[in-house]
Amino acid sequence: MLNPTLNRLSLSSLIVALVFATSAAAQGQLEPQGAAQMRPRAYFPVMRRSPPPVQNVVVGFEVSQGIQRPDNGVVLISNRATVVRVTLTSAVSHSNVSAWLHAYKNNAELPGSPIPAINNPRTLQASANRAAINDTFNFRPPTSWLDGTVVFRVWATNGTTYAAQSQMQAFTFNPAPPLRVTVVPIHYTCTSGGSGTVVPTPPYNYLVNDYTRKVYPVPTVTLQVRPVPVSYAGACVSNTPDPDSDDWETMLDAVTAAWQSDNSPVRYYYGLLDVYCQFGCIAGMGWLGWLRAAVGFTGFGPQRLGASEVHAHEVAHNHNVKHAPGCGASEPDPAFPYVDSQGRARIGNADYPNFGLDVYDALTVYPYTSSLYDYMSYCGPTWTSDYTYLKIYQYALQHNNLLVQSVTEAEETRYWLVRGRVRSDGSAQLEPLFTLSVRPSAEAAPAAPADDVPTATLELLGNDDQVLAAHTVALRALSKPDAEGNLVRAFNELVPYVEGVAAARLRQGERVLAERRSGSAAPRVLPGLQALASASADTQSLTWRAADEDGDPLSYLVRISTDGGQTWYVAAITDQPTVAFSRTAAPELLTPGQTLVEIQASDGIRTHTQRFAQTGETVFSAVEGTN
After folding, report:
1. End-to-end CA distance of the chain
2. Cβ neighbours of residue 233 under 8 Å, at least 6 residues apart?
3. Is the pLDDT of residue 261 over 90?
4. DSSP designation for 486
């Protein structure tokens, strides 16, 4: 209310003085000299508003980084984008109320504190709807505040009728490693249903920005693109890749081998390809646990719809997160806690009232009361539950923190690349063996987890079937069944190289699951390597010849070096003596004077490797070969 206090005259005296002065002036009377000093002086008042009394109020804090409950029971991550929602209600509808968030650490106010609510000002109401984003004051604290224990307090006022300060409430932000992603573009050449090589169009930020970073408990997501893509050839429809489940398994093998040959870094390798999906398709595939490799599609339409959600789903499998129940998802997690009457995984329930929040874009609220399903199910629409969120967080703490190792005298170590499948119908197969030489890097991952998964024994045998080496291999589930609906468990590992291997055997106990033997003669890659450009000059193919006196079918591992042999990259695993790349997408890939190509032929056990140096645009010369 207004305060009528005057400095020296009462309000009535001021009025009299003003009336007198006005009357004299109106009559034209002149004051005698010195009269101005003699008459009373009138001072205009300083009009002040009395500030409203400050109330101490209890407000509701909800600190969300993607999923949260009213009790703030979901773990908070250090330096992750955060929205602080403050519920402030009043029986009187005070209008134009603005609020500020104060933050303290170790009893000192943090730099930049306080910050205003991003939706100032508001009219206070008697109640608030948690599902309505503007029923709360919303704050975006700087990430520099969000580490360790932070104390929040809110001040709110409209300057006239309302002023309040809240209680102080502490929140702890916990460290977590970032999600490191390496995109492996797949250059897919059509063998039917079209022609040419199809390449996913960069940039690839949509893979992580559209969905993954919103639902993962990580401070940041770092994105790299592997310098050398992976080449694959298969069926197309209307010039768009149309891979079947066997194709997906083989591409996953190649991306996994790429990750292994790059020294198995603490990064998630994600093979990316365009897919024909007009009438339904496989959109992605990944390993369940430990192996940091998956493959997925580029999404629908210009907006790449679904691509980031599939990426989040498959990479969550790499974090050993199983499917959530619902809509046909295979081998769902029986411990998933929020399942509705139709067996579908929801993001919460009445006992755990999880509300999702997109803290990056439009602050969209995702209430558990809506028809929202956990993204690890096959139902939609989706968000994350706290159950999935916490499982990824716990796995990342154990396995995604970098270790530093000494590599001052690191030398390349030679390994056997061993792969195999065991299917739920009882069938099993050993894939052709290859050799890989890997040089350790300063970045090292923690040891592989001792997961509770089935195992088998892989035996490497000599000519007289003596066991040269035996290794226990974990049979990790693939995230998709095969074409016949069989669940697939597989292994893809590097084991120490031993000489004289003539056979490999996979067994469980005394039962032999699969066996593979070499022929009497080793395969041989012939010296000639051809480089051919397509008629459009977009696709460049590398074609070679190989011989095997036993007539055994051959498989090939292709590696490429773009720096004269210092660094080698797996570029393909194929049954055909050819690979193709888009020159438009990777113009620096095949460069005379710098590029070396290595072709390794395998009859299943024995291998022969031939290297070629690119000396001209389409000219390659054999430089060395090894068995």
Report:
1. 95
2. 188, 189, 190, 191, 574, 576, 578, 579, 580
3. yes
4. -
What is the rounded radius of gyration, in angstroms, for the C-alpha atoms of the chain? 35
User: Does position 10 have pLDDT exceeding 50, yes or no?
Assistant: no
Going from the C-alpha of 349 to that of each of 40, 188, 620, the distances in angstroms are 77, 44, 64
> How large is the average pLDDT for residues 454-477?
96
Separation CA 375–CA 319 (nearest Å):
14
What residues contact residue 622 under an 8 Å CB cut-off, 6+ apart? 527, 528, 529, 610, 611, 612
Tell whether the torsion through CA atoms of 499, 500, 502 and 505 is positive or negative. Answer: negative
Sign of CA dihedral 240, 241, 244, 248: negative
Per-residue pLDDT of 324-359, as tens digits, reads 999 999 999 999 999 999 999 999 999 999 999 999
Euclidean distance between CA atoms 479 and 422, whole angstroms: 14
Residues 183, 597, 291, 375, CA torsion sign: positive
Q: How far is it, in rounded angstroms, from Cα 250 to Cα 482? A: 12
In sequence order, what DSSP letters do the residues of 95-143 get, joined into one string?
-SBEEEEEEEETTEEPTT--EE-TT--B---S---TTSGGGSEEE---G
Please write down the HEC assignment for all residues of 204-258: CCHHHHHHHHHHCCCCCEEEEECCCCEEEEEEEECCEECCCHHHHHHHHHHHHHH
Average pLDDT of the segment spanning 179-186: 98
Q: What is the DSSP letter of 145?
A: G
Measured CA to CA, the distance from residue 400 to residue 554 in angstroms comes to 37
State the Cα–Cα distance between residues 589 and 579, nearest whole angstrom.
13
Q: State both tokens at 361.
A: 């874009």
Dump pLDDT digits (tens) for 504-519: 999 999 999 999 999 8
Contacts of 262 (CB under 8 A, 6+ apart): 226, 269, 569
Tokens coding 450: 């001792």
Contact 472, 420 (CB under 8 A): no
1's tokens? 């209310």
Which run of H or E residues covers position 478?
A: none
Q: If you ran DSSP here, which 8-state letter would residue 323 be given?
A: B
Q: Which helix (H) or strand (E) holds 603?
A: none
Contact of 354 with 348, CB cutoff 8 Å: yes
Give the span between the Cα atoms of 230 and 232, in whole angstroms.
7
Amino acid at 448: A
DSSP alpha helix (H) spans, 362-434: 386-399
How far lies 394's CA from each of 388, 453, 489, in Å?
A: 10, 18, 24
Residue 573 backbone dihedrals phi, psi, to 5 degrees:
-125, 120
What number is the average pLDDT over the span 94-116? 97
Neighbouring-strand partners of residue 328:
none
Distance CA 539, CA 553 (A): 27
- Answer whether residue 289 shows pLDDT above 70: yes
Number of residues in the chain: 627
Reduce the secondary structure of 544-600 to three states and give it as a string.
Answer: EEEECCCCCCCEEEEEEECCCCCCCEEEEEECCCEEEEECCCCCCCCCCCCCEEEEE
d(CA 55, CA 52): 9
Instruction: Compute the half-sphere exposure of residue 123: CA atoms within 13 Å on the CB side of its CA.
Output: 4
